[in-house]
Amino acid sequence: MSCMCFKMCYFYLQVHGKDGHCSWYGECGDSPTGKYNCLYTGPAKPLTNETGLKILKTYCPDLLEEKGDTYTCCDTDQLITIQKNMGLPQQFFLRCPSCYRNFLNLYCYQTCSKNQSNYVYNVKTEPVPTNKNKTQITKIDYFITHSYANGMFNSCKSVQMPSANERAITVFCGHPADQCTIKNWLQYMGDTTNGHTPFDINFNITNTPITPNTTNTTFYPMDVSTSLCNETALNKSACSCQDCTLSCAPMPPFPKPPKPATILGFDAWYFVMCILYIIFVLFFGTYGLCYNIIHRNAFGIKQKKYDSIEERPAGRTGSINGHGQSRKKKLSAPLVEEKDINCLEKIGAGVEKFLRNIFLTWGLFVARHPVIVIVLGVLIAGALSAGLYFFKVTTNPVELWSAKNSRARTEKDYFDSHFGPFYRTEQLIVTRPNNNTIVKHKNPGSIVSFTDYTSLFDKEFLHMLLDLQLEIENLTATYKGETVRLKDICFKPLAPDNNNCTTESVLEYWQKSHENIDKVAMTPDGWFVKADYLDHFKFCVSAPASTQDTVGLNISCLATNSAPIFPWVAMGGYDGLNYQDSTAFVITFLVNNHLKDEDNEKAMAWEKVLIDFMKTRQNGPNMTIAFNTERSIEDEINRESSSDIWTVLASYLIMFGYITITLGQYGTCENPQKLLIDSKITLGLSGVLIVLLSVAASLGTYSYFGIPATLIIIEVVPFLVLAVGVDNIFILVQAYQRDTRPPGESLEEQIGRIVGRVGPSMLLTSSAESIAFFLGALTNMPAVRVFSLYAALAVLIDFLLQITVFIALMTIDAKRQEGDRFDACCCIKAPRSKKEKHEGWLFYLFKHFYAPFILKEYVRPIVVLLFTAYFFVSVAVLHKIGLGLDQKLSMPDDSYVLRYFGNESTYLHVGAPVYFVVREGHDYTTQQGQNALCGGNGCPQDSLVGQIYTASKLANYTYIAQPTSSWLDDFFDWLAPGGSPPCCRLFPNGTFCPATVVDKTCKTCPVNKRPDGRPTPQDFMRYLPIYLKDNPGTKCAKGGHAAYGSGVNIIHNKTQVGATYFMTYHTILRTNEDFIGALREARKIGENITNTITTKTSNATVFPYSIFYVYYEQYLTVVHDTIFNIALCMVAIFVVTFILIGFDFFSAVLVVLVVSMIVIDICGMMYFWDITLNAVSLVNLVMAVGIAVEFCAHIVRAFAVSLQPTKLMRAEEALAHMGSSVLSGITLTKLGGIIVLAFSKSQLFQVFYFRMYLGMVLYGATHGLIFLPVLLSYIGPPINKAKLYDAQQRRKHLSADSDNDDINSSRQNLVSDSGAPPDYNTLADPAI
């Protein structure tokens, strides 16, 4: 009992004192930073002044007696000083009432408590200089308990400073919030060097009574109860979650990254594909066994009627197409009866016959009227090409990669139109990689303690860097005769009151002044340096918003435009908060951006001068500078395209040269004149010109319609059209070269017959590709859509020119050759020579060696197993293909921007700003509408500010680095009446009176408030425009002009708030995955906020916006877009192939199957060769589909129309006759040109063109010339019985059976050697 009584008495003495006397009363002389209090040791005096009582009630309500007189140890003047000194604390801490109440009590009990002598000890006093009868107090000891000190600190340590995305305690601690403790906080607040404390206060934290050595008086620490931050205080609600962790609901668990799917410890994709391949091998092995036993009749089992093997009379021997054995049998097709033919086969045969007749008639017409056709074709194509006069190339990355109706694009347009475009940034990253010198700096108050700084902090280097920065700011450019400097184009947030440019640089800590860098503070004796530029730097990185350091230099930390410079923006290459270890300085010049390009031309002119200047300074002896401007990337892309023109030109010249030389059919070298006659240089060159004309016509046509092209089109479309066009050229020419004209047939009729045979095949590939590309234009990705449009039309025009102009030219060239005239010099005629037909060495190799070999019994299974193995491997790695386009690849090898990209990812410590935009339609004047967004006291945790705050606590997952700034919360703080002067004041005439104006006639704004302390709707809209024009300063740090002037739209004659934004920052984003993840998570947050505020009677939606979203949005859907585009192409290919091959379902399926395999195998190559999936590679994949059709469709069609009795023989015939044309027309043509691309300076060319083009040709050639024939030999479509029936019916009308061999020989010459599908009108024997 006695112990409890002692504790109660001790508590009473702590708070109320045992005698209730004062340590001071009233104010005496002036101190450098305020007023000294007068020494007074008598009892407390009654406070009767109404002004004093009003201030006491506002700031120190705990000391106000409810009944009777109020006794204090302070007079009204001291209370006015408290009101004046509490201005800044109120602006920063009032958003958390518990913190503000605890903070006020610290000074209220120190200054006014009637028992202050119990815990305030006057350590040092001196006579007042102007009145020797009075004594002023210049230093005190203030004793407080641990419970009070910790309670105050814990309630304030998390309070946010929304405008700076920082914690408010940073301003009052002299240290970064993470390094601030109760000890250094109180030490800073008690030090007169902070510019606000009038005399030294030594805060002594103790729980026991203390008797100082210099006095016999015992002091009892002040122990007023503190309010927890989640408790109400000062008649206000508890602090919000953003300012008080105790107010927060439990933090959601950190989402774990998804684990890759595994089966038995193996990657699921790998495991499944491995199992499927094993199943396929087993199935294929079983199929092979059954094929040899049953299909080939190894055991002599009787075949059914329509088996493809049929015995013929003995007497014919020979090896049958690579079977590797001789038989005394002849393979023949079975007899077909009309009743055996189904409807689809009849339609198919009819379509085939119809197409053949159409092309035969057309070819005959063109061959008979070549000049008219050439003139008309060239005129029409020329007229279309004339549209190039209106030709425009899009180099704007936004228009290139983002569709106008895409979400990112519409959100960017919304942001730009409401708040203005994001600044143009000119940035320098300064390093000293060759200087590892350590700058040692003696710590203040110590003789032996030093701090090491990197060589960047060498004073001479800072002077050198400042000279460079000032030189840049003074650079001049000329635009239309007008001189342009940085000050003419830069961003000035406080204009017109402050016209200094916004430059984020560490040199702004010294206001870009050489004098400030050199300034030092000496000890009182003048012997030692008390503080220098590094002490000032250390202070400023701890409190960047401070208007004056406390180290003794009395220099502001604010930049010349009065904005704080945050260290994580201006420095890089350090760990944690060790800014002295920085290895890079980052200097950023912010330049105004405009919606209209012409309005940015001044800035672009100045940026050009800056680039030229920096190129001369980037590799100085004392520093290395990586730099980038707003125009740099676009400039370098254009330069890269220009520099690669010669590479691309060399590539095309090699392909053109190959075509012109190899198109001819050369015999021996015994007769040189014969070589000049048989060459096709002129025809080949004409074919190349037709390809170029078709590209020009496509470009011109779309230019008429105002559809701009892209650099991708110029670089890719000619390659594609050349692949398609050259293949058709070789097929046409080689079909003519291998054909033997029957007696009585004219040259024109021969040309018509050849066109009738090969025309449907050309139509098949060209139409399939063209329709596929047109369908590909349905995508939303601009680069892919525009490419698809241009490519589709170019392929279509190329086909039309080939069946018109080229056939006419081929006819003229054939007449020249038959007239024994020299190629290219047709006026020279050689003596008549014997006309000989040559198969050509490539055709000979294919027919007699390659085709028989590739279709041998032991080769075919190996081919199937190898190709399917790689196919399954490619499928297994599809999910591992990276997304994105490394911006380094888009730059030339020698670009200065490459160094910037490298240093950016290495040194920078802050990510891109992200704005959460609230669209127009939200009601900001109601409590419900405000609570949906705000983050101060009374605001729910699920508000916009609250949700972003929660997201910042999960930064590794959400990519949100900091809590958001909040104009709404700062506006409420700005309206608070405290401070001397308060932020919101009015002149007598009702106009705004800034806090910087000293005018006693200015009065506090008469704000009408609701019961919750917030302004009424009328006053909300009355004072908001004033707040947004008020500049922040030392008197009022909450002015909204700098931070929010452009972030809040006032509409409808200043009666409503329109669109607004809340800004924060992303974390450091270094990889494509980081950028994509940041966009995805920000959108999730925006959607959650929208769902929350829409439940609170708001019509507005919230979306995130950052400068890079418009470029990376494509990667959220690029996989879907890839599948969609390729699937559309496949559907088009299937439909066109199905119709044009004669309603042959199996042939169409096989074409789509092999084309799909080629595309998937190319995707596998992309993974193994580090090629990411993006718009460029997607364009290439779509193009790969078109080129793959060229490799497959001709051979499949040749197989489908062949009437050989077995699939193996049909595959061999198709490969022998079409394979050589495909190899010479596409593969060899392209390889030479592709190899040249490997030597390009452009990394983009090397990766996305050389590698992918090489993959297209190699995979297309190997699949079309190796795998496809083997596949057809196994599962190719059966013979169309309608075609076979027609052939057999024609056979009945031929001569006797004894003449069959001669007929067969003639047929083989006319059909099999033609290099094209057979002409059925010449067929006699159905067993072809």
TrEMBL record:
GO MF term set: cholesterol binding; lipid transporter activity
Localization of this protein: Endomembrane system
TM segment ranges: 268-294, 371-391, 645-669, 681-705, 711-733, 754-775, 787-812, 858-878, 1123-1141, 1148-1169, 1175-1200, 1221-1240, 1252-1275
Superkingdom assignment: Eukaryota
Entry-linked PROSITE patterns: SSD
Keyword annotations from UniProtKB, A to Z: Cholesterol metabolism, Disulfide bond, Glycoprotein, Lipid metabolism, Lipid transport, Membrane, Signal, Steroid metabolism, Sterol metabolism, Transmembrane, Transmembrane helix, Transport
InterPro entries: HMGCR/SNAP/NPC1-like_SSD, NPC1-like, NPC1_MLD, NPC1_N, SSD
Protein's membrane topology: Multi-pass membrane protein
Reactions listed under catalytic activity: cholesterol(in) = cholesterol(out)
Family, similarity comment: Belongs to the patched family.
Protein name (record): Niemann-Pick C1 protein
Record organism: Mytilus galloprovincialis
